[in-house]
UniProtKB/TrEMBL annotation:
It holds the Pfam family Abhydrolase_1. It comes from the Bacteria. SUPFAM superfamilies: alpha/beta-Hydrolases. One of its GO terms (molecular function) is hydrolase activity. PANTHER family: HYDROLASE ALPHA/BETA FOLD FAMILY (PTHR43194), PIMELOYL-[ACYL-CARRIER PROTEIN] METHYL ESTER ESTERASE (PTHR43194:SF5). Residues 26-133 form the AB hydrolase-1 domain. It comes from Streptomyces silvensis. This is Alpha/beta hydrolase. Keywords: Hydrolase. InterPro entries: AB_hydrolase_1 (IPR000073), AB_hydrolase_fold (IPR029058), Carboxylesterase_BioH (IPR050228). The keyword Hydrolase applies. The lineage of its organism: Bacteria, Bacillati, Actinomycetota, Actinomycetes, Kitasatosporales.
Length: 251
């Protein structure tokens, strides 16, 4: 396990790393998740094996520290990821990022283009104020104190067993602030930022998740949109073979 400081109080972001050749692949998880449970099986597939791979846990999640006075906004998470990549001497990486992690990856690619050569985003949040049925919106609907006191337990009960398994590892304050930042979004929007980024960009949409909003505009801006059959939000778990094929892509 490796670690790097990400704030003035020397809190640590942590990741596991496998050795390999070529540009690194950096895997970033979504809200209330952790990277290895969602992505380690993908990195081990024959078509992807042999590349240096980092499985990052965002602040407040998984094995990383969870400082109570940290903001946990998308920009805060992106800066923490940058600290990890700088410490790991990683540049021009392929970022493979899921859901909120994809939003963090967009912010990082905009702020530190030296770190990112390619984005592979799995159902990343591109717009503020997602539907009320979205996990982030359900969490952000609580006031922070209420969520920490009662809402966290309720959300865990309502979450499916897979999400609950990793959400239990996330700090409730970090989880609420991360969800609130995701719902708030960015200015300009994540969608607008993604559309103007210069690097290779791939967006994976689960075929069971419905139509991707703004599909044609994303494609027109150079984003390669891949609709993965027989997959929902967790494409890497629902259809690993198609997920791995999309990562290989033009990489």
């Amino acid at each position: 396990m490796r670690e790097a400081r990400f704030d003035e109080k020397e809190s640590l972001i942590r990741w596991t790393e496998s050795a390999g050749h070529g540009p690194a692949r950096v895997y970033v998880h979504g809200l209330g998740a952790a990277s290895a449970p969602y992505h380690a099986h993908i990195a081990a597939r024959p078509e992807l094996a042999g590349r240096k791979s980092l499985f990052l846990d965002l602040p407040g999640h998984g094995l990383s520290d969870r400082p109570a006075d940290f903001g946990y906004a998308l920009e805060d998470h992106a800066d923490a990821v940058a600290a990890a990549l700088d410490a790991a001497a990683v540049q021009q990486a392929d970022l493979v990022a899921h859901s909120m992690g994809g939003s963090v990856a967009i912010v990082l690619a905009d702020r530190r283009p030296d770190l990112v050569a390619r984005l592979v985003l799995t159902e990343a949040n591109l717009d503020a104020h997602p539907p009320g049925t979205a996990g982030s919106s359900r969490i952000a609907a609580y006031e922070e104190e209420h969520f920490v006191g009662e809402g966290h337990a309720r959300v865990l009960e309502q979450a499916g067993p897979l999400w609950a398994a990793t959400m239990r590892l996330a700090d409730p304050v970090a989880l609420h602030r991360s969800a609130t930042g995701l719902v708030r979004g960015t200015d300009p929007t994540l969608r607008a930022t993604l559309m103007r980024l210069p690097m290779d960009r791939v967006y994976l949409q689960g075929g069971l998740s419905g139509d991707l909003a703004g599909h044609d505009a994303l494609v027109a801006s150079g984003v390669r949109v891949v609709v993965v059959p027989e997959a929902g939000h967790n494409v890497m778990l629902d259809n690993p073979a198609a997920f791995a094929e999309a990562i290989v892509g033009q990489s």
